[in-house]
Amino acid sequence: MAGSGAGARVPAKARRRAEALREQLHDHNYRYYVLDEPSIPDAEYDRLMQALRELEAEHRELVTPDSPTQRVGASPATSFAEVSHAVPMQSLDNAFSIDELREFDRRVRQRLESAGEEVGDAIEYTAEPKLDGAAVSVRYENGMLAWAATRGDGVTGEDVTHNVRTIKAVPLRLSGSDHPAVLEARAEVFMPRAEFERYNAAARERDDRTFVNPRNAAAGSLRQLDPQVTAQRPLDIFFFGLGEVDGWEVPDSQSRMLEQLRTWGLRTCPDHQRVKGPDGCLAYYEALQARRAELDYEIDGVVYKVDSRRWHEVLGSVSRAPRWAIAHKFPAQEEITVLKSVEFQVGRTGALTPVARLEPVFVGGVTVSNATLHNLDEIERLDVRVGDTVVVRRAGDVIPQVVQVVAERRPKGARRIKPPTHCPVCGSDVARPAGEAVARCVGGLYCSAQRKEALRHFASRRAMDIDGLGTRLIEQLVDGEFVKTPADLYDLDQQTLMSLERMGEKSAENLLAALDHSRETTLPRFLFALGIRSVGEATAKALAEHFGDLEPLMAADEEALEEVPDVGPIVAAHVRAFFAEPHNLEVVRALVGKGVRWPSIGSVQASVKSWWSGKRVVITGTLDGLTREEAKDKLERLGAKVTTSVSQKTDLLITGKDAGSKLDKAKELGIRVVEIHELPELNPQIESTS
Ligand code: IVH
C-alpha cells in the first residue's frame, strides 16, 4: 500500500495528500500515455508533481518506490546485472514477398489441420506494426514494477530496470485491478520519429554525437549506465506480448490479451487489427505502408500473429522463432551506395550545406541520388570521403541523409572533402567562425542563391503566405533581375509577369491578387518573413508581443532584446545585427512604404484602432483559453464589428481549432484568414491597454 511504510510522525493529512497526489498523477499518466486523452494541461501536471515532490521532501517517509517522483534512481550503475528469461524472448521469421506470406499461411493451416483442429475458411490473425526499436521484457509482481531487461541472446538479458523506469509511458504500478502475481510483458522501446529528428538536430547544433537511426537511439539509450542520461532521451514503449505469467487466465486471443494489457495501463500500439487470411494480412500491410511516413514511430514491416493463443501451443516453435507468427518486411529505409562527389548548396542565411551526389540507390520506396551531409562538422564526424561506400537513410518525408561510412570498403585514393573557400554561386568569401559547424557565404543579398532563398522564405505559407510564388518563378524573377529584395515583389506588374515562362494572363492576375492580399499581415508573420537569423516563428511572436510594434523593436539594443522570453545573447545579437544593417532597414522601410501593414499590438487605443476600427470580423472554431464572448468583447473594444456569418463584406475570419464551413466559405470568397494564436491582442495573457 502506498504510504504504509510511513512513520507515525507524518501527519495523517500529509499522508492522505501524498496518496491523493500520487493517485491523480498515476491516473493522468494513464490517460495521457495509454488512452491518449489527456484531461489536464501539462502545466497542471507539473504543478501536481511539484506539490508531491515538496511533500516528499518534507517527509521522506512518504516516498514509495512507485511514486512518480522516483523514476530516476540516485546513482549510476557500474555494470548491468544478468537476467534469465524464464520464457525465452524469441525472434521472428521473415517474409519478404507476398508468396512467402501465402506460404506461411499454408504451413500454419496444414499444421493445424493435421493436429485435428477445425480451421474454417480463413485463419484469423492479429496484424501489428513491426516496431523498430529495442526489445524489452518488463516484469510486474502483484502490480508493481519489479524489473526490466533487454533481450540479450533471448535466454539471458541485461537488467535495465533503472533506465526503463525513466520512460514515462512505463507505469511503475499497474492500473485497474486483479493483477497477476507475475506478469512479464514484452515490449519494444523506441524513440518517436519526430523526437529522433529533434534530438539529432539539437545534437548537431551542440556538436554532439547524433544517432544513426531511431533504433540505435533506443538501444543506445537503454544501455546507459546512468539513468539520468536515459531520462533525457525521449523514449516511448509499446507492449505486444507476454513472457512469464502467474495468476492470470490469459485470454485465448492475442487481440483480447492486448486489450487487457491496456486496461492495466500498459501502452499498446493503437494500429493493430484483426484480419482474416492472407488477403486480410495483405490489405493491412498495404494500408500501413501507405501510412508509414505519417506514423510517429518507426516500423520495418508488419507482424502477423495467429490470433488464437491456444493454437500458438499447437503450432509451437522452430529453433528460436514461433511457427504462429511472421514478420512481413517493408522495403529497407537504409541502403548502401557509393559517394560520387560533394557539392555545396547555399541557403537563405548563406549557410553552405554539403550535398552528397550518390550512385542512385532504391531506398525507402524511391530512387535517391542526392542526400544531405548537414554541415562540415558532420563530414568530419563521419570521416566521409569521395569514393566511400556509405549508408543512406530515407525515412518518411525526411530528406535522405548519409548516416555512416562502411569503413572496410574504402577504396584506395578516396578523396577527403575540402571545405570551400569561395561561394560556389557568387564567388564571395566563405567564413567559418571558430567553433561553428557551418560555413557561410558572406555575400549576403549580393549572392543570388541567398536572394532566392530569402524570397522563398518571405513568400512561404507561414510567413507572408503569397500563394503562387513558387521556386521556379522566384528563380526567373531573380535571374532576370526583376526582383532583388522582397520589397520589389510589390512593384511587379502584369506585363513583367506575363513575359515569364509558363505565366499566362490568369496566373499573373492571381499572383498580383495574392501579393496584394499579403500586404495585410500580422507583426509576428512579418518579422518571421524577414528571415532574421535564428528568429523562427515562436521567437518572432515573442518579439512582437514584447515590443508591440516594429519601431521599438528596431530601436532595441541587445540588453532590451534579452528581456524577451527565450531570447538569449545569440538571438539578440542576430536581431541587432539585422537592424543595424542599412540595407535591411531600407528593405523594411520599402515594404512598409508599399503598403505592408499589420495591426499594432502595443498601444491598443492609439494605433490598433487605426487597423481594427470598422473591420468586420467573424470568429470560428474552438478558441483556446478564451470564450467566444471574451474574444468578441476584446475585438469590439478594439473597434471591430463582430458578425456571425461570412459574407463578401467580411474583412477577416479568425479561426481556432477545427474550423469548418466558415473557413471554406472564407477561402472561397478570398477573405483573409488569421489563426487566433497569431493575434497577440486576443491572447488572454496580454492585457489590452484599454
Ligand atoms: S512478437 C515470439 N510483435 O521484433 C514473438 N515482435 O524479430 C516475438 N518486434 O524481438 C515478438 N514489433 O523486438 C513482436 N508487434 C511486434 C513487434 C515485435 C517489433 C520486434 C521484437 C522482437 C523482434 C523479433
Strand order of the largest sheet: 2-13-10-3-9
Tell me the fraction of residues in β-strands, as a range.
15-25%
What molecules are bound to this protein?
Answer: 2-(butylsulfanyl)adenosine
CATH hierarchy, class of the largest domain = Alpha Beta
Number of domains: 6
Mind sketching the topology for me?
Elements: H1 12-35, H2 42-58, E1 82-84, E2 94-95, H3 98-114, E3 124-131, E4 134-141, E5 144-150, E6 156-158, H4 161-164, E7 182-190, H5 193-205, H6 214-222, H7 227-231, E8 236-246, H8 254-263, E9 273-276, H9 277-291, E10 299-306, H10 309-315, E11 317-318, E12 321-322, E13 325-329, E14 334-346, E15 352-363, E16 366-372, H11 376-382, E17 389-393, E18 401-405, E19 430-431, E20 440-441, H12 448-459, H13 471-479, H14 486-489, H15 494-498, H16 505-518, H17 523-529, H18 537-547, H19 550-555, H20 558-561, H21 569-580, H22 582-593, H23 604-612, E21 616-620, H24 628-637, E22 641-643, E23 652-655, H25 661-669, E24 672-675
Helix pairs in contact: 1-2, 12-13, 17-18
The chain binds 2-(butylsulfanyl)adenosine (IVH).
2-(butylsulfanyl)adenosine binds at residues 90-92, 128, 130-131, 135, 151, 188, 240-241, 303, 322, 325, 327.
